[in-house]
Amino acid sequence: MEDPKLTKKIVRREVTRVLTPGTALDAGLGQEQNNFLAALYEATPKGARASESVCALALLDVSTGEFRTSEFRGVDARAQAIDALLLAAPSEVLLAASAELPAQLERIPARTRVEDWVLTRDFAVPLVERQLNVHSLEGFGLNGHEPAAIAAGAVLALRAHHAKKRSAAYRLVEVRGALTALELDQVTVRNLELVEPLFSGQDDRVTLFRTLDACLTPMGKRLLRATILRPLNAAPEIDARYEAVAEAHSDLLKREEMRRAFGGILDLERLLARIRSTPLVRVMCARSPAAWRGCRD
Predict the structure, then answer these.
(1) pTM of the model
(2) Which helix (H) or strand (E) holds 218?
(3) 118, 113, 110, 117: which is closest to 97 by C-alpha?
(4) pLDDT, tens digit, for every residue of 99-122?
(5) In what order do the strands lie in the sheet with 67-73?
């Protein structure tokens, strides 16, 4: 933390960043893979009826800046949240210190306990508002979805603590519920070989993802994988997608021209995530708040 030439004593040292499986930028990560840090929050009060159960899940990929949260209600809320968590395959999941550890979560490489007060409305919701630079979360679809906001706040809190500074400018992209897509459980995904082969060591070219994957950009590969795991369940949206595919299929020249253009595009999401954490950007933030807002946007 200081120039060795300017001191005759032991050079001052400090912890500047803590790396965990969910917060490290893994250079060996596949193009189609996300490195999610997750938080699982169960908001059901003790003694409440099963129909009043509420579970929330937040996912943050520090390598791309993708940040989303989901909320599940009803008798099967916990099972649905755990299925969604396992489908995302996070590297690390956060749980309240007093929360029960579901046996299914033992498959996740790192399970981190946080103090119960981190997963409270008074701490987590203001943290998300400050991160998004807003006075209310209504514009992000979180109005009336307090458990989802609390889970998102827990993820931000751990990320900021490990980075020893405020988190980068993550934007809450999407609030997902149980009815926005066809929900697939882990057994179905595995048996259908959607993204991974059924048997360990088998060639992954047998999977649906590898069969369909002709994407030329890493962003496209990740989107295709996410789409396979969450198929549309609304007829108008499915029809709109068919029309888009038909439009592209009907004009070979335009389609190939677009593919050539896409062929030179790098992984912009991960490049931008790295730029946000560079010293140059932090200097811009310190010297000019207006410049930082422009860079963040």
Answers:
(1) 0.72
(2) helix 218-229
(3) 113
(4) 888 888 888 888 989 899 999 999
(5) 110-114, 92-96, 36-42, 54-61, 67-73, 174-177
